[in-house]
Structure prediction request, 636 residues.
Amino acid sequence: MVNEQMQNYDYRGKRAVVLLRVSTEEQEKKYGFPSQLRSIREKLIEPLGLRILDEEKYIVRDTYTGMEFREREELAKILEMAKRREFDVLVMDVLDRLGRTGLPREIYRAELLMNGVRTLTTKPEEHADDNSLMGQMIRLLHGFKSEEERNDILRRTQNGKRERVLKDHKLLGSPMAKYGWKFRDIDKGTYLLDNDPIKIELDGTILLDENGEPWTAAKVRRFMFEFVDGGKGSIRKLGTYLTSQHIPVPKEGKWNATFVKRILDTRYVHTPSDEPILAYGYLTVLDGNGQPYTDASVAQIIYELDDKGMNTKKIAEILHKQGVPTGKEAQWTVASTAWLLKDRSVVGEAPVYVYETSKEPGGKKITKKKPQDEWVYLPEGVIPPILVMEDGKPNIAQFERVQKRLEGNQKNATRNNRHPENHLLRGGYAKCGYCGGNMTTSMQGKRRRAIYCCSTAGNMDGRCKENNFTLAEKLDSCAWSVAKEIIGDPSIVDKAVEDRKTKDPNAERREYIIGELSKNKASRARLMSRLEDEDLDDETYTEIKHRLKELVDMKRGYENELSKEINVHAEWMKTQERLKHFHKRCQEMREQLDDPGYEPDYQFKREVIEFFGIVARVRKTDNELEINIEREGDSV
Prediction:
């Protein structure tokens, strides 16, 4: 297997690194690595007399698949070893192990060659060690041909799947049935309505509705449309009701990487509760010691696993396997509820190949909908409709009415409020005097008057029985009158501003990093000076290069940290400037309080409300409006 290019160079005794790569977990477990290594030993290592100094270190096993250029961890290690002159030859069975596409592969090869490393494969026709223009052209052509063949295979595979769907009228690629249905058979090709009673796995409880009948997944989906179409409440209220019924949320409520990350992000700024976690909103789950799981005990488990170096996905898998509750198993959110209401499967429509996966720069996968004309629709019967009329036909009219309601809700949602100045106390500064819940903002009536309404009013869970609402102009006026009294007292304003002032939070750290960077620069200068010594032996040269690499890495790390610390300092400076500006505005306003024609702008009013923490609690007593204004927990 020694070709002409290999014969032009003496490889005997040269230090080799072996690159092995597999694309799938199955290949890794079965035959991928051993067969590649055996072929390389027989065709390259032994005939050429190459040496592998440390098989554990210099036989590199890369299990990447589908990763972007410059994102392969194992290959990055090889490039670093090449820069440190730890080996002379990189060997692999085919050039595809270096990269699937021609141009990135050639860039890797050129980078290795710049560091004195040659590249060999078991395929002479690839010209892996041919540095002539002809060799480069042959390698690029091989790469482009391989890439085109792979794209052709992908296209044929996708077209074959589409043809199979159209021919067999079956759903493909569905690991689990949609909520409300179950698979008809083990082929998972068609659906049946899921009319099985919903049972809580932890204690075997069968959930019953208000009529004492078992809830089923199909009934839940039907009820959701009846609730919204019947005008019984908003999507938020629908979610609150489903939560009160302890109905498990499909696809959500289980441990995942996001849940774990949220807990880790608050590790040093939040103290978890010692209250037991209630699974499905009612069930206490015991750990191995017979103690109920709490937020604190679960957080401690996560902290310990994180300290062992486990990633968030692995931690989530362990928690799920151990049966640790999240407390969100039956917590229906607006998103989870709206998602089911928008799904057209309830009227029997069965589109497949609706989504496609692509990559953003950096390798992150994103899933998005294809254009609707690219969807493949299966015939009636593959998905039996859940919404049906008396004659058994899909109730498309009801589905469309609900969609119009959803569109209207989205258009009028508070997050889309284009006139925030209509509500001075929006965002939790207006609270219900009955239940303590936040009051939401809206515009109602033909005159589109701004009002505050208890966010829990009318909910079926019984939290707030009162239909508590009030006009925004009344509540805002009361709150602002209290705010003016506060601003009129300079001692209150001066003390509040002074209490908010802080010292530079990271001055010492910035000074330390700058000092370390200065030391780092001096050390690198000394080492660079030593490299100019022509009498250096190879071992010392390699050691100095290695130390320089470490210093450069340290420099990069310090520079990144310094950049972050500078950003923190800049934010601190902005905060201090805002305090000065706010203090000055309060002084200016105090001078004009007696002027009946003076009215500050909405933005300043809002800053005052937020700065002093002014909260209005409102309730009605004997048809009279009772308003209590508080600041930082003290009644004003």
Summary: Residues 257-329 form one domain.
